[in-house]
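Listing S7. Sequence submitted for prediction.
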Amino acid sequence: MSKRCNYWWVTRPKRKLNSIPEILSVFAGATLEHQWDGSRSLHIQFEDALEDAGLKRKGTRRDQGGSGGRTYAAWLRSLGLICEETTTKQVYLTLAGEAIIDGKSPVQVLKKQVLDYQFPSHFSLSVGVDERFKIKPFRFLLRLLLDERIGSLSTEEVGKIVITEAETEKDFEKIVNRIIAYRNFGDEVLADDFFEQYIPEVNPEAHDKFQKLTDIANTMFNWLEYTQLIGRDTKIIFIPEEKIAEVRTIIDNKSSIILNAEDGEFFQRKYGIDPWHKKDTRNLLATKTVTARSIDIQKIKNALIILASQKPINTIDFDIINQVSEITGTDRKLVEETLLSSYPHGLVGGFLANYYEMAFKGTEEAVEFEKATTEIFNSVFGYKAIHLGQTGSKSAPDILLLSDDEGYQAIIDNKAYSKYSITGDHHNRMVHNYIGKIGNYSESHYPLAFFSYIAGGFISTIDKQIASEVYESNVHGSGITVGTFIKMVEKHNATPYSHKELRNIFSVDREVKLADI
C-alpha cells in the first residue's frame, strides 16, 4: 500500500486467522535464518510451499516474483509472529511465533497478539497507515461493546465511523456519540467530504461505495471472533453474557502503546512476546545453524500442525507417526523422536480454533460441526461416539455416546447458533423422539444417562427450557456453549476426566458453566 491510508487497516490474504499456525509453520520451514527482504527466490519458494500444503490456491500467478509469498509473510509480520534481525537482515520467529510452532494454544497466543495490535506499528508504518492513529483498535472495539449505550457493533458502524475517526483512546466518548447519531440518522452524519478524506479512489458509480471500509470492519470482526471473546450474528458482533467478566478484566488491565515503532527488530520482538514471557532476551545471532536434520524436523512439525488443524490429535500414537512419516518422507525414527519430544500431549489447539467457528455458522456447516464434535468425544474423551446427524432424520439426535467404562449411553445435539432456544418442536423432538424412542437408533442396552446441547450460545431462559425437558423425560440434561466445551477439552488434556465425572458435568439439568468443569 503506497498511498497514505487514512483509516485503520489490517491485511487479509485470508479472511480469518484459523490458518495462521499452518502458514507460520510452512514459513519457518522455508525461510528461517535467511534474508527475506529482497530475496525473490525465497519469496517464490515460500509461495510454492504454501501451494503444496494446500494453504494457498494453485493457479496462474499475477507475477512470477513471489508476491503471494510476500503477502502472507506481511500477514505474519503484522501480527508480530516474525522479526528481522537488524544487522544480518535474517528473519526469525518472535516468542509468540515460537509458541505457536511449539504447540501452545494458537488461540491464546493470537488472542494476545490481536488485543495488543496497535497503530502505529512497524507494519502499519510500512504500508502507510496515517500516523494520527495511536490506538489499540481491538481493545477499543471491546470497550465499545462493553458500553451499555452501544452493546453491539455492525460492519457499517465500524467501517464508516470507528475506523475513520477513532484516533486515540481519548476519542471514546466522541465515538460513542457518533455511533448513536449514526443509528438515528444514518449516512447524514458523515462529513460532506467523506470520500475525499478517506477513500478518494472510490468509483462514484460503485454499487456500495463504502465496501472497502466495511470489508476492513468485517476482517476485524473475524479476528476478534478468533479470540473467542465475542459472539456474532451475520454483520453484528456483541459480547456474550458469559464472556463479559473476562472482557472487563482485559480492558481493566491497561496495555500501553509500544513506542519506537520505526525500529523493526525492537518493535517486533516487544510486540511478539507470548503470554508466558515478560520479555524477549534471546540472542538471535546465537541461534543454531540450519542443518539437514533441522530442516527435516521443521517439515515434521509442519505436517503435524496441518494434520492437527483437521482433527484433534490428543496423543502421538503409531498411526500419527506413520502418517507424518509418509507425508514428509523422513525417517520414522526421527518423526517419532520429534513428535514425542515436541508434542508429548498431542496438538489440539488449531483444531479447537476451527471448531469454535463452526458453532456460529447456522446450517452452513452444521454437519461439519457434528462430525467435529463426534471426533472430540471419540479421540479426546474416549467414548464410542456415533455420528447420526448426517442421515438428516428427525427421529435421531446428532451424536450417540456409548461409555463402556461406566455402562451408559448419552445423546448430544449440536446447534450452530449464537443464541439457541429450545423451541416447541425441538423440545418435542428431544423428549419424544430422541429419548422416548432411543431403541429406534441405538442397539445398546445401557441406560440413558443424559442429553446435552452444544451451541455457540443460548438465550437467557435456556435453564428453564432444559428443566422442562428433564421433568418431562425423567432424564438428566444440560446445555453447554462451545467456549465452555473447549475449556473442558483443554482441562482434560492436563487432567483427564473419567466418564463418571463427565456424566456428572453433563447432568446438571441446566447450562454447564465454567464453575462446573
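Caption to Listing S7: primary sequence and predicted C-alpha cells for the chain studied. The first strand starts at residue 82 and ends at 84. The chain has four domains: 17-123+260-287, 135-256, 288-349, 369-516.
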